Write the C-alpha cells for this entry.
Amino acid sequence: MPNNEVSLSALHLILNAGIVVKFVMLGLFIASVSSWAIILLKRQLLKQAQRQNDQFLKGFWGGWNLSEAFSRAADYPLSPVAKSFQAAIRELRKLGDEKKDESGIRADVVVRSLKKANTTELAALEHSLSWLATTASAAPFVGLFGTVWGIMNSFQSIGMTGSANLAAVAPGISEALIATAIGLAAAIPAAIAYNFLHGGVRTHALALDSFNQDLLNLLQREGAI
C-alpha cells in the first residue's frame, strides 16, 4: 500500500506541474523512449551482423573460391565483412585484365574500395548512436532546468502568499525535483548503452581491418592484384 501511495503522489505532482516543467518532462520522456528504441534495435542489428560475419567467414575460409564467395556474399546482407568483400571484388572485376602488368595499380583500387566500403558499413552501424550520446549528456541539464524553473515558481508562490511552512513549500519542491529524476532516468541508460554499443561497432571495425589484410594477401597470392 505505501508503494501505491508514493506512485499516486508522484503522478499527482507530475499532472499538477507548471506548463514549462510539463514540457520539460514530456521532452525527457520522448528522449527516453527514443533511446530505448535505438538501444534495442541497434543491439539486435549488431548481433545479427556478427552472426552473419561469422557465417560468411566460415564459408570463405572453409573452401569457397573468390567467385563462389562473391555470389554467396549476397546471402549475408547484414555482414559488413561480406559487403566490403563484394565491393572489392566488384571493383576488381571492372578492371578486368587492364593494368595487370602495372605494379600496384590494381592493389590500390582494391584498397580504396575496401576503405570506402568499410567507412560506409561502420557509418551504418554507428547511425543513431549520436542520439544516445546527446541524451546522455543533455538530459540531466534539461531536467535541472525544469527543477530550477519549478523552484523559482515555488519561491514566487511563497512570496505571494507569505507562507514558508513545509506544507506550502514541499509540493512545489517535490514537483521540481521530479524533473531532475526523469532527466537522470533518461541519461543513465543512454550513457551505458552508448558505451556498450560503441564497443560493438569497434569490434566490427577491427574485424573489417583484419579481413582486409587477409583478403589483400589472398589476392596477391592468387595473382589477382
